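Re: folding output
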Amino acid sequence: MKVQFLWPNFDCPIGLSIGVSYLSGALKAAGHDTNIVHVCEWLDYPYDIDRIISDFRSYDPDLVCVSTGYAHYPESRVAVEQIKKAIDKPVVFGGIHTTQNLWQVMSENPWLDYANCGEGDESLMDLVRALDSGGDSAGIPNLWARRNGTIVTNPSRPLKDITAIPWMDLDGWQFKRITESRRGWVNVYMNRGCPYRCTYCHNNGVAKILQESYRTKTSSNEDLKYLRYRGIDDMIGELKTILNKYDFVEAFSFNDDTFTMDQDYMKRFLLRYKEEIGLPFVCNTTVLDVDREMLEIMKEANCDLVRFGVETATSRIKKQILKRDFSNKKTEEAFAICREIGLRSFAFNILANPSETQEEMKDTLRLNSKLLPDGLKVSLGYPFPGTEYHEIAKKLDLIDE
């Protein structure tokens, strides 16, 4: 079966979708054919609906898969509606915007055949099998469907064991150009889930969806079994394959939400990484999930940069708005250790949060002057639909919908 992916990546930094890469890799491993249209002006493919339709017609897919992020959803639905009219093939939307706004996405796009909620590894494979064999495609867990104009809802399936998974399809992208534009950095993932429930993050929304579907008491990691790691052999094997196949890779960027959430596991992994891979790497974590020993092990394994979600200096904003409960003292200690051992640090900040005052924002900037990170990214709080952060902003009458 031929599966066409659409990845909108325009008006933003160049990159590829790890999620699409793994889905495409799994389909290819199962004997299917895939193609990826990567809409990105930096790769000489601007947002041009006529060109997209022409390329889809040339490939002539049996199924169209569209990854919908928050930022590109409006343009995606406009383009895909015209694609649907032009080639009349089944279309499935997935991605975080669709996951957290399923009913809205299905309702406002009456031409849309399917919408995936959450992880798509197994649901997409089930859909492809059903379409390929002429079987029932309306009762697949994680997948909402449309039948005779009616939206068919289905429950979430148990979360997938990711100990060993089919590896990323990187050949479907302009991988060399993308990697060289990122100074040789390649994004990878080794875990899924996050131990925290920050209001602005998709993990909070996904956990609540799973809690409702599984009917668990809470959306905690213990109830949902939300945190999962790949097997160390599997992760090392994929990294080795990437290095052996592509000679332009200079570093790995672990884009996991919380790289060190299981420090015992991470220590075992980093010992193997140091011995068998050795390239510089960067990662994301929190000040609650590292100590001096962990940071020293990371440094010894060739960690070049560790990125921390500092977000704000204000206790009120942390607890009432963001649900990030850690002290500035703990934050200062983590950054001080990084400086002492020569490990570069990076801080993420969020300003203009709902109800935040100018003085509170200045407190965050003052905190940065104490932390002295090697890199800093300051973002304005954005209430993405489907997040608790969005609901907080609505209750404070800050959103005109």
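--- second protein (sequence, then structure) ---
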Amino acid sequence: MDIWGGAHVALKIIKNVEKYKEAARLEINVLERINERDPENKNLCVRMFDWFDYHGHMCLSFELLALSTFDFLKENNYLPYSISQVRHMAYQICLAVKFLHDHKLTHTDLKPENILFVNSDFTITYNIEKKREERTVKSTAVRVVDFGSATFDHEHHSTIVSTRHYRAPEVILELGWSQPCDVWSIGCILFEYYLGFTLFQTHDNREHLAMMERILGPVPSRMIRKTRKQKYFYRGRLDWDENSSAGRYVRENCKPLRRYILSEAEEHHQLFDLIEAMLEYEPSKRITLAVALRHPFFQSPINANDQPPGKSWEGNRDISR
């Protein structure tokens, strides 16, 4: 509770340990810059109201949000979101992260846990076939949160960023990174919303690259030539044993991207066209969020209840209220 304004807020309390306090100072700097550049909170990044020191503990107060898109998925037995829900969430995420990119920031840790619903109230229906209750979130308005790893263009760039499953190939290969690594993460997130499971379920670099090759085709030779991680390659190709237990796991659990499509309806193909553009190996060829927001997937309503994401959303960017 905010005793001055009477509103409920979320309070993030930092351990009284210098390394955590320094990380909090960096996050506060980013959040204050976001507030300066977006005073009306139109760009869907979480709003920090204030921060203060309480007996050595740094405390940050935020607008109070609801469940993360990951927690809702988990509590719903990993039942995927509908295509129209994916569309609305995707548009908002692209809009929020484009705002960061326009201001020379890279989030670096985009994942379903860091996309929060404004309100996660839901309706319940009973699936007779599967003998289970299924939840449908009433509103797909979201906010992007957790700017603890966000990096300005001019700042030092850590070698490794992003949570493993959402990590771009240029990060794994230590080729340097910038805003396109966020776009890769968004592609992985949209896949997960659509299917209910992680695209790259691994904890190992070599296996991660093998999964990418199985799903997206070979790593470009230019990236192989440039990387200092030559231990993953042999004679210009990924050094990977298809017949090992790990090789069998990848073969059985991964398939070319388009084979994951659940319907032949045009909107499903449009979504995968967008995901494919976000999962382009070469960062310089990867779709930008400015272009992504004009993608056909966002251009037309699918049914009478679906608000067209294109022009009407752009006319009122605060689509979260």
